[in-house]
Amino acid sequence: MTMVQGGGGAGGPSSQSLADVVDTILDKGLVIDAYVRLSLVGIELVTIDARVVVASVDTYLRFAEAANRLEISETQPKGLPDMVQDMTSGVAEGKTKGAIEAAGEKVLDFLGGAQDEREKQRRGHSGGGKDR
Amino acid sequence: MSEQESAPGGGGPVVYVYGLVPADVEVKEDATGIGSPPRPLKTVTHDDVAALVSEIDPDAPLGSSDDLRTHAAVLDATATVAPVLPLRFGAVLTDTDAVVSELLEPYRDEFHEALEQLEGMVQFVVKGKYVEDAILREVLSDEPEAGRLRDAIRDKPEDATRDERLALGELISRALTGKREQDTRRIVEAVEPVAAAVSAREPTDDEGAGSVAVLISADRAEELDEAVAPLIDDWQGRVDVTVTGPLAAYDFVKTRAPGT
Prior knowledge:
The structure holds two protein chains of two kinds. By secondary structure, chain A is mainly alpha-helical. Chain A is 54% helix and 2% strand. Chain A has a domain at 18-49 and 79-124. Chain A contains four helices and one strand; from the N terminus they run E-H-H-H-H. By secondary structure, chain B is α+β, with helices and mostly antiparallel strands. The two termini of chain B are 45 Å apart. The interface between A and B is large, with 76 and 108 residues.
């Protein structure tokens, strides 16, 4: 026999960032729709797929600006590796936060779409699989 | 705020399902699940399989950061003591009878077999993140064209150099895609010797150097750190490597194909 404790308690084994949690639990794991049809409850999900779209115009412009800024810092003595790490972890936190805020803002737009998507998926099952 | 079980108009509470576990798993009395206020975590058992569940209010939208963290924490904490098949976030059924009749009963054999395979296993995720300045320098020295474009935009207003900026950004992005593939492969090669299974994830972040899920015997977990150590040394100042876990085996459970 094994005892399981909840998630609310003394903290899980991992201190993952929310972005990591999102990548994992919205993208991986068993999909309930493949098993259960009748008793599914279509509850509103206020969560969006927070994944960054790789290779968008915004990304290109951001990279270009970063390269532009790099020019300036190159003339200065190169920082210690851990200083560089500090800087990037700052950037990372900022980005994560951005994604979460965006998640909050896009809630309403998303709800309608998500519900439709689920409906379609459920009906789609009888007429042959579709993977999305 | 009322603690009443039934919400007006919306009917009674519904059942949120976290994942599937062997039937001999017991939940601590004070363990709670998602929602506000959180309700007790329970198991619903059929034969030798069980679902890890808690009741939630059907009218309350799901997906706050607390909900997401709790879902993950319940499953990850479980994975350290028992095999668990994690469900993707958001699985809600009408009641516990439905959990038995529509989930546990029809798929008992499938779940039982998968749980047996996961016995003693946990998942870790090894993730690399590029150190921006370092990786940009690398790209600029690899690609002469990138240096030329960078000179073209230097000290010029953004509007006047939009085309060059887009070209430069695209070039950097493409270069990173190539590096990401190589670096993901390096992570895979580093962890393979100690892993029971390995699964590279799709990139979700334009500064990601690779993200690899590793299924490993729980008692060999320290060996993963040893396997990753040379990579961390090698990549010092170029890629920040993090190892997260133990987690439930999200990347190694397979959803049955629809209609089978």
